[in-house]
Amino acid sequence: MKDAKDMRILVVEDETIIAMDLQGMLEDAGYQVIGPVATVEDALGLLDQECPDLALLDVNLGGENVFRVASTLAGQNARIIFLTGHSAQHLPEEHRHRPLITKPYLPRTVLDAIARVQS
Predict the structure, then answer these.
(1) Structural domain boundaries enclosing 50
(2) Burial of 100 by CB count in 10 Å (0-12 exposed, 13-18 middle, 19+ buried)?
(3) Could you give the number of structural domains in the chain?
């Protein structure tokens, strides 16, 4: 298990306030944040240069789903946590086993989920 200071977390979230809150919370907890980015294309472009340890992915990015990003991350062996207002039934079969945090959520919920996937 990596220490928080060594853990690189990609944030993909299209709502600016939520993205900023996530970034601040993660940095306060000692994590290195990649992004945040708000689109599938920006996330895929970033993944050409970066290999995060974990990603927090908003499922719906302005009407486009994030599953291409999730599949790319899975190919890089990154851990994935989905953030969504929907249930796991809205996830494709290949990603249903991944942790899902339902919006709205408390910051502690996100940090607890990260700790669980780290161990």
Answers:
(1) 4-118
(2) buried
(3) 1
Contact 40, 67 (CB under 8 A): no
pTM score, two decimals? 0.94
Looking at residue 115, what is its pLDDT?
94
Provide the terminal-to-terminal Cα distance of the chain, rounded to the nearest Å. Answer: 6
Q: Which residues contact 89 (CB under 8 A, 6 or more apart)?
A: none
Whether omega before 104 lies within 30 degrees of 0, making that bond cis, reads yes
Tell how far CA 93 is from the center of its chain: 18
- Residue-wise pLDDT tens digits, 46-76: 999 999 999 999 999 999 999 999 999 999 9
Closest of 47, 8, 2, 51 to residue 27, by C-alpha = 8
